Amino acid sequence: MTEIEAMKALSMAIVVGLGMIGPALGIGILVSKALEAIGRNPDATSKITTNMFIGIVFTEALAIFALVVGFIIKFT
């Protein structure tokens, strides 16, 4: 493995690792608050769950962008 290839692999690992921290924290907070809201108002479970999954999808998109940037760094 050349120095450039090693540098690309390390860069990919750093970009993806740091890029996953934000979405992981965001999803954790989002789900905990949704469960808290369901505990306070069980009648609104379906509405809260729907909004929670929409929020998870948008937050997960950020993690996918980080992965794509990591692959771009690795394979260019």
Automatic annotation (TrEMBL):
SUPFAM superfamilies in the record: F1F0 ATP synthase subunit C
GO cellular component entries: plasma membrane; proton-transporting ATP synthase complex; proton-transporting two-sector ATPase complex, proton-transporting domain
Subcellular location: Cell membrane
Domain V-ATPase proteolipid subunit C-like per the UniProt entry, residue ranges: 11-73
PROSITE patterns assigned to the protein according to its UniProt record, in alphabetical order: ATPASE_C
Recorded topology in the membrane: Multi-pass membrane protein
InterPro entries for this protein: ATP_synth_csu_bac/chlpt (IPR005953), ATP_synth_F0_csu (IPR000454), ATP_synth_F0_csu_DDCD_BS (IPR020537), ATP_synth_F0_csu_sf (IPR038662), ATPase_proteolipid_c-like_dom (IPR002379), F/V-ATP_Csub_sf (IPR035921)
Site entry: Reversibly protonated during proton transport: 60
Function, in words: Key component of the F(0) channel; it plays a direct role in translocation across the membrane. A homomeric c-ring of between 10-14 subunits forms the central stalk rotor element with the F(1) delta and epsilon subunits. F(1)F(0) ATP synthase produces ATP from ADP in the presence of a proton or sodium gradient. F-type ATPases consist of two structural domains, F(1) containing the extramembraneous catalytic core and F(0) containing the membrane proton channel, linked together by a central stalk and a peripheral stalk. During catalysis, ATP synthesis in the catalytic domain of F(1) is coupled via a rotary mechanism of the central stalk subunits to proton translocation.
Family, as annotated: Belongs to the ATPase C chain family.
Protein name: ATP synthase subunit c
